[in-house]
Specification:
The chain is mainly α and 78 residues long. The protein is 54% helix and 0% strand. It has helices at residues 8-14, 21-31, 48-59, 65-76. The protein is globular, with a radius of gyration of 12 Å.
């Protein structure tokens, strides 16, 4: 099955967050780094719905999984 490619900004839209490049940078700067040992969906920056979406995307290896992995890496950089 082919997975569609989702731009990084589209993930932010899906999460109900501002998706302009500057807003994405501010979000990452404000919420990085996620502490070691904390899974992305368990980070303090998500509400319940956002955490559930991220958890499902990772567990189901959904078409969002690749861009969610990109978000995880971005939020782990100091």
């Amino acid at each position: 099955m082919e997975h569609p490619d989702h731009p990084f900004s589209e993930l932010f839209e899906q999460l109900g967050l501002a998706s302009e490049p500057e807003a994405i940078k501010r979000f990452i700067d404000r919420n990085s780094p996620i502490p070691e040992g904390v899974e992305l969906p368990d980070a303090a920056c998500w509400n319940e719905g956002q955490a559930e979406f991220l958890r499902e995307a990772i567990e189901a290896d959904a078409d969002w999984a690749e861009v969610v992995d990109h978000l995880d890496v971005s939020l782990r950089k100091p």
